[in-house]
Specification:
five-stranded antiparallel sheet; kinase; transferase; 20% strand; nucleotide-binding; 15 strands; single chain; HATPase_C_sf; Heat Shock Protein 90; 3 domains; two-component regulatory system
């Protein structure tokens, strides 16, 4: 059974239960109220008759029944009671609507409180006419109880009166049930339209899938509704916007988010203008893609923004631009290694074994000199591998590459490894490009590592063409490059972002023997 029908059945059962409970409660309340009201009415008539002087004087006459008959009969006709009984202190009737019962004892067994204690009561007892609600009052003379008056209404009359009210309650209940059924149909149909005909378990699964997808994508996602409230924000977006990752900003108005310049900029873009077109822009170092949200009625419901750090694009572009350089270096190394194998093969074919041995020793010594710089130093393995690779790359390009390591071990934690490798790799690539340009002083670069008061200094020098009239700030601008080829101008920007991420500093030094010197200092635990 579909959820809509289950909901309809549940609401109907609930309405019926409520109506039944209320009906039974009203019936009990009505019966009790009627019984109490009629009992009080009977008591009022009884007390009135008990104080009637004619009734009191009749008890002193020779024929009490005849003396009080006219007065009691008039009271009976006016009261509309089922019966009025007037009896002496022994319970013998002096008056009763039925003449045949005059002179007989009163029935019911509820006379003692009236005769013995002299107090008025309301009781419900089985009398000679049947079950009735009675009001009984003592007749007093000179402080003594000389008899009592009992006025009664039969329970059947009370029940018939209550039945009239119960029918009214029943009609009200039926009307309520009909309205409830109509409301149930309306609610279930509206719910079906709102949920696009999906079952609750399907909606729950879709929500969980949506949350997983939103958090799994590499982009930051922020959604605003038409009144400027945030309806969605994933963890990546909070990180890019420098917001508390533990806080849920759903439902937060933009007026409460003015500390985020990017969100402020996004709110200006999602104010309802130009909402019918997608757009891509760059805001505060973040690439923003804007996509409007529409409902089936072609009404604008809000906007979704996808955010990406510009450094992602910058790093990707830089890596693509370096791929060709690496490929060229590998081809050069392959070519050189092939030449060495040909030389060795030729010597062996000429049976110049000693010369072949000497050639191998010479190559081994050359390789040893390249790696001996690292043998006595404790260097992070990743950094070690990068420096050896860059040294080979420089050698293939005919560049003299000097590497000076610190006397202290260079140990990098997991947070520092990748940023440091990116910094060193970009600075060395820039240095090699500089010394290969026409007008360079010499094909020489150098990199040195030194420790200074809990910080690691990495200095890259080149003897190229220098910066000339340019400043270091120009190099840090995204897209600026001294190269004429495409896909350049991002390296120094990446370096700056990595340095900032490590809470370090970047300096351009000109008071050295090199043409260009770039120094990066990052805090590090020794």
């Amino acid at each position: 059974m579909k959820f809509q029908y289950k909901l309809m059945l549940l609401i109907i059962v609930l309405i019926l239960s409520i109506i039944s409970i209320l009906g039974i409660s009203f019936q009990k309340v009505i019966e009790d109220a009627l019984e109490q009201e009629i009992g009080q009415r009977a008591l009022d008539v009884a007390e009135t008759l008990a104080l009637n002087q004619t009734i009191i004087d009749a008890f002193q006459s020779n024929d009490p029944a005849a003396a009080m008959n006219q007065t009691a009969k008039a009271a009976f006709e006016v009261s509309e009671a089922e019966f009025i009984t007037i009896a002496n202190h022994e319970g013998i009737r002096y008056y009763h609507p039925k003449q045949s019962r005059i002179g007989l004892p009163s029935v019911g067994g509820d006379n003692d409180p009236v005769l013995l204690e002299g107090r008025s009561i309301i009781s419900k007892a089985e009398g000679s006419l049947g079950l009735s609600v009675r009001g009984k009052a003592p007749i007093m003379s000179e402080g003594n109880v000389i008899g009592f008056v009992s006025v009664g209404f039969l329970a059947e009359g009370i029940e018939s009166t209550a039945l009239v009210y119960e029918r009214i309650v029943l009609f009200i209940g039926l009307g309520t049930l009909i309205l409830g059924l109509l409301g149930t149909v309306f609610i279930t149909r509206s719910l079906k339209r709102a949920t696009l005909g999906m079952e609750p378990n399907e909606i729950g699964r879709l929500y969980q899938e949506k949350q997983a997808i939103v958090e799994s994508v590499g982009e930051g996602l922020v959604a605003f509704n038409q009144i400027g409230e945030i309806t969605l924000m994933n963890t990546r977006a909070k990180k890019l916007l420098n917001l508390d990752p533990e806080n849920d900003y759903t439902g937060t108005s933009m007026s409460d988010m003015d500390h985020s310049p990017v969100l402020t900029e996004l709110s200006l873009q999602s104010d309802g203008t130009n909402k019918n077109q997608e757009a891509i822009s760059m805001t505060k170092g973040i690439v923003v893609q804007k996509v409007p949200i529409w409902n089936k009625g072609k009404e604008w419901m809000g906007t979704v923004f996808s955010l990406r750090d510009t450094s992602d694009f910058i790093e990707l572009t830089e890596r693509l631009s370096q791929t060709q350089d690496y490929a060229d270096a590998l081809r050069a190394q392959t070519h050189e290694f092939s030449n060495k194998l040909y030389v060795l093969s030729g010597l062996l074919q000429l049976e110049s074994y000693q010369e072949a041995i000497d050639y191998i020793d010479e190559e081994s010594q050359a390789q040893f000199k390249k790696t001996s710089t690292f043998t006595d130093k404790q260097v992070d393995s990743w950094l070690h591998a990068l420096l050896i690779g860059k040294q080979h790359q420089a050698e293939e390009k005919g560049i003299d590459c000097d590497i000076l390591l610190s006397e202290q071990p260079i140990a990098l934690d997991n947070k520092q490894k990748r940023p440091v490798l990116t910094i060193v790799g970009n600075l060395l690539d820039n240095a090699m490009d500089a010394v290969l340009k026409p007008g360079a002083q010499q094909k020489k670069i150098a990199i040195s590592f030194t420790y200074t008061d809990k910080s690691l200094s990495m200095m890259v020098q080149d003897w190229g063409v220098g910066l000339g009239a340019l400043s270091i700030d120009s190099l840090l601008e995204t897209g600026y490059s001294t190269k004429t080829q495409k896909n350049h101008g991002y390296g120094m920007r990446i370096v700056q972002e990595m340095v900032d991420g490590l809470e370090g500093t970047l300096h351009h030094r000109s008071n050295t023997e090199a043409v260009t010197t770039i120094e990066v200092i990052i805090p590090i635990e020794q």
